[in-house]
Structure formats: structure tokens, C-alpha cells
Amino acid sequence: MVEAITATYVQEDADWAITVSGQGKELTARAPGIIAARDRADQLVEELGDGKATVVHLLNGSALDFTSAYMTARLTLPKLPPLEVPPPGSVPKQQTTEAADKKPQLPPSKQLPKAVEDRKAPAEPAPAAESKAPAKQA
């Protein structure tokens, strides 16, 4: 019968203390966050030497609490600085008159062959259609 390995997590301020126990051994470590703590627990399990053992991760004695905290940390977006919206009518800092006149360079896979570019006619308004109706005579 294979003995399960238990990884117990305890939050201490901003760090996490990890205790991995199984096969009559107990290893401890610290990590800066729950994701790093989970990775460190995997390393400690490898040090125990049994790669086929089942590992039970516990927070507050509960695997559900650990899974909830771990998945929340994994799925939470990092904090980004707020977007700065310029006032209406102002020109963004990145745009200059030179940059506004230039077309953005396309990657080679998106560029048309030179022969196609040469055949392109500049966009001109179409000539007005002539009326075929005869002019009225007075």
C-alpha cells in the first residue's frame, strides 16, 4: 500500500511555511506566496524520493481551503496601474507630426508583393456620370 504524503501550508505574514511529511520523514521550507509555496512543496516531495505517491495539500487542515486559496491566486490578474485618459482635444505624447504622416510598417508576411503595390491606383473620386437624356430645347 502506498502512503500518502501530506503538504501542510501555514501563512506567516507575507510568507508561507510548508511542511511535507511522509515515509517517516518531515521536510520544511518557506516561500513568498502560495504559488511559490506549492512549487516548493513539489520539490520537497521529490526530495522524499517517492515520485508515485499521492500528495495531499492542506491549508487549515482542509484540502478544499488549500485548493480555493491556490486557484484564487492562480486566476487573479496582477494589479496594473490605472489607465491615464488624456483630456479631450489633447495630442497623446507618443504621436508627433512625423509619426502621424508615416504608415506603420507591416511584417513581411502581411506585405503585398511589389508588383501589386505598383498597380494600385491612388484613390480618386469617380467622374460624374453623363446624362443620356437629350437637353430640352426652348
Summarize the structure.
With 138 residues, the chain is α+β, with helices and mostly antiparallel strands. The protein has helices at residues 34-48, 63-75, 97-101, 114-119, and strands at residues 5-12, 15-22, 25-31, 55-59.
How would you explain this protein's 3D organization?
The chain has a 4-stranded mixed sheet. Helices cover 28% and strands 20% of the residues. The relative contact order is 0.11. The longest helix is centred in the first third of the chain and has 15 residues, at 34-48. The mean pLDDT is 78. By secondary structure, the chain is α+β, with helices and mostly antiparallel strands. It is built from 4 helices and 4 strands, in the order E-E-E-H-E-H-H-H. The protein is elongated.
What low-confidence regions span 5 or more consecutive residues with pLDDT below 50? none
What is the CA–CA distance across the termini? 113 Å
Instruction: Name the strands of the widest sheet in spatial order.
Output: 3-2-1-4
The number of distinct β-strands equals 4
| Structural class by sheet pairing and helices | alpha+beta
Mean pLDDT, as a whole number? 78
Helix content: 25-40%
Secondary-structure element order, as H and E? EEEHEHHH
Largest beta-sheet characterization: 4 strands, mixed
> Which of globular, elongated, flat, extended, rod-shaped describes the shape?
elongated
What's the tally of helices?
4
Strand portion: 15-25%
Rg on CA atoms, Å: 34 Å
